[in-house]
Amino acid sequence: MSHARRWRIGALVLIVALAATVAWNWRAWQGQAAVGAAYGARMTCSCRYVEGRSMESCADDTEPGMEIVSISDAPQDKAVTGHVPLMAKRTARWRKGFGCILE
Question: What ranges in 1-103 are assigned the alpha helix state H?
Answer without folding.
Answer: 3-45, 55-59
